[in-house]
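for the recovery benchmark. tokens below, seq after
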């Protein structure tokens, strides 16, 4: 919640997080979605012009410090139930991977330096997995045919009476 306006380039949709504020202690340049830029512009319009903080606190000149109340308010307004804010990172990663984004790209968005970390975040949904299988099935469909292995060639031993797909 220590994001400062100077870190945000709303014209180009980029948030540059200083190394001192990231877990890896490396500068992290993250693209922002159009929706995020719109939201940040609305927040900017409601914050005093001389305030450096994206989320100003109760005490003038300080960032938001009371995180529990803030999180509860966000969860209630977004109707997230008991979801933890960190759960949203996992959901984002899963949606991105399921939508076809590569793990290295998702890792970069999340600020991960290790691919293993991203793997823990990204869980594929069944639909994209099934869609991938369906694509392969459609590609092979004209080439596959069922044969009764009891009458198949003797040079290819198989269980008597079983059915196999061959090209």
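predicted aa per position
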């Amino acid at each position: 919640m220590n994001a400062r306006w100077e870190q945000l380039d709303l014209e180009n949709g980029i948030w540059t997080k200083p190394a001192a504020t990231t877990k890896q202690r490396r500068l992290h340049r993250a693209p922002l979605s159009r929706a995020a830029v719109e939201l940040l512009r609305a927040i900017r319009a409601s914050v005093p012009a001389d305030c450096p903080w994206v989320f100003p606190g109760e005490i003038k000149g300080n960032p938001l410090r009371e995180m529990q109340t803030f999180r509860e308010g966000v969860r209630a307004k977004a109707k997230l139930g008991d979801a933890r804010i960190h759960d949203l990172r996992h959901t984002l990663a899963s949606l991105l991977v399921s939508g076809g984004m590569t793990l290295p790209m998702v890792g970069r968005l999340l600020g991960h330096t290790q691919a293993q970390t991203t793997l823990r975040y990204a869980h594929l949904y069944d639909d994209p997995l099934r869609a991938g299988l369906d694509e392969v099935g459609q590609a092979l469909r004209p080439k596959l045919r069922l044969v009764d292995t009891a009458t198949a060639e003797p040079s290819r031993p198989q269980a008597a009476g079983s059915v196999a797909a061959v090209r």
